[in-house]
Design goal:
Layout: E1 6-10, H1 13-24, E2 29-32, E3 35-39, E4 44-49, E5 70-74, H2 78-86, E6 91-98, E7 103-109, E8 115-121, H3 124-129
Parallel strand pairs: 1-4, 5-8
Antiparallel strand pairs: 2-3, 3-4, 6-7, 7-8
Length: about 130
């Protein structure tokens, strides 16, 4: 089995794609008006409109964003990213905070309410984990 992507469903795909392009600094590749991807070596974030859910099943047409999943990105300097993220209008949930497990984390949400964590390891143990 190979993990290939994380797909986010959006009520406003154009706004969501623009947000992620600014937040993570990648340009999206649009495949249809309802589907785009932002890719790096390690992950692809796919963004689909709520209409794409009809292709899987008629019962999946309603939108229910989640606050039980966090999309996480390792960044070099979470405090610097915080200043940048504030400038794109992200909803900040938690300003940079050093967590008990040694990561300094910034928690914010995208336009649909999906939570995103930018983190920088700061404890010796956390730094070692991500070498």
């Amino acid at each position: 089995m190979t993990f290939t992507s994380l797909r986010i469903i959006s009520k406003d795909i154009k706004a969501a794609v623009a947000f992620y392009e600014q937040a993570i600094g990648l340009n999206a590749k649009w495949y249809t008006e309802d589907f785009a991807e932002l890719s790096r070596d390690s992950i692809t974030i796919a963004i689909g409109s709520t209409r794409t859910m009809q292709l899987f099943s008629e019962g999946l047409t309603g939108f229910r964003g989640t606050q039980s999943t966090i999309i996480e990105f390792l960044v070099k300097d979470v405090d610097r990213e915080y200043e940048r993220i504030k400038g794109i209008g992200a909803d900040i949930i938690q300003e940079p905070t050093t967590m008990p497990w040694g990561n300094r984390s910034l928690l914010f949400s995208d336009p649909d309410g999906h939570m995103i964590n930018f983190f920088t390891p700061v404890s010796a143990e956390a730094v070692q984990k991500f070498l």
